[in-house]
């Protein structure tokens, strides 16, 4: 931890998930899935506070049982389907300020990110500090070149989005990445002034595809459990 700069971990876990009801606290290989994010943050020993931002009393009780704190509940305006992560972070920072606590830097960790571990959190923080970035997040390379994407046009036909790439070799196409959807290291002043996570001074931390899985459906959940077991087998 940087001298004089206390860090906060913000785990965002609202109660109203639609695609998988109660997703943030469902058992993942026998443990509430949120517990993986909480324990990764605690075990990193980076944070002065490991807090959960939620609007749900059951999630709050479970988070506290796992070692996190819930110093206040999330507002209704930031607990619906349209509230953004940056808005939630800004709300937490301001609520702490009202209590006389200032965090220059923090990390927002999603509650359904069982692949996050203390080592990757430390690596992300080091990159934020050393590179003087505003935000750092894990990213993963697309498994197939998106430059050869196809899309539906009409009457069942498909067409290439970029036909000029048809004859190019895969190795000659630029690697392209996407957000792994796990955590975001951030500087608080940037979040408060811009209210967004992606800007001109943002860096990605490349992670392997085997340690990334979106969990939006029950099939995604099963795949995540399989991947987790493969990564953690003895």
TrEMBL record:
- Show the Pfam families listed in the entry: CTP_transf_3
User: According to the lineage, what is the superkingdom?
Assistant: Bacteria
EC number(s) on file: 2.7.7.81
Sorted UniProt keywords:
Nucleotidyltransferase, Transferase
Q: A Gene Ontology molecular-function term?
A: nucleotidyltransferase activity
Q: Which SUPFAM superfamilies match?
A: Nucleotide-diphospho-sugar transferases
> Matching PANTHER family, A to Z?
HAD SUPERFAMILY MEMBERS CMAS AND KDSC, N-ACYLNEURAMINATE CYTIDYLYLTRANSFERASE-RELATED
| Name of this protein | Pseudaminic acid cytidylyltransferase
Q: What organism does this protein naturally occur in? A: Chitinophaga filiformis
Q: State which gene encodes it.
A: pseF
């Amino acid at each position: 931890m940087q001298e004089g700069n206390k860090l906060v971990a913000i785990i965002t876990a609202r109660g109203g998930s639609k695609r998988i009801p109660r997703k943030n606290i469902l058992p993942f290989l026998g443990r509430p899935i949120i517990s993986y994010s909480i324990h990764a943050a605690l075990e990193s020993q980076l944070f002065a506070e490991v807090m959960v931002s939620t609007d749900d009393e059951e999630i709050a009780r479970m988070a506290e049982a796992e070692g996190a704190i819930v110093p206040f509940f999330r507002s209704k305006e930031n607990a619906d389907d349209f509230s953004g992560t940056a808005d939630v972070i800004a709300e937490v920072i301001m609520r702490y300020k009202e209590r006389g606590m200032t965090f220059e830097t923090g990390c927002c960790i999603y509650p359904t990110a069982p692949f996050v571990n203390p080592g990757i959190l430390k690596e992300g923080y080091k990159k934020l500090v050393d590179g003087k970035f505003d935000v750092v997040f894990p990213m993963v390379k697309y498994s197939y070149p998106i430059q050869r994407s196809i899309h539906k046009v009409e009457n069942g036909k498909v067409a290439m989005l970029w036909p000029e790439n048809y004859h190019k070799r895969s190795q000659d196409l630029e690697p392209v990445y996407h957000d792994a959807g796990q955590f975001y290291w951030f500087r608080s002043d940037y979040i408060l002034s811009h209210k967004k996570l992606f800007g001109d001074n943002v860096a990605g931390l490349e992670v392997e595809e085997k340690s990334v899985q979106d969990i939006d459906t029950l099939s995604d959940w099963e795949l995540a459990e399989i991947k987790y077991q493969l990564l953690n087998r003895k």
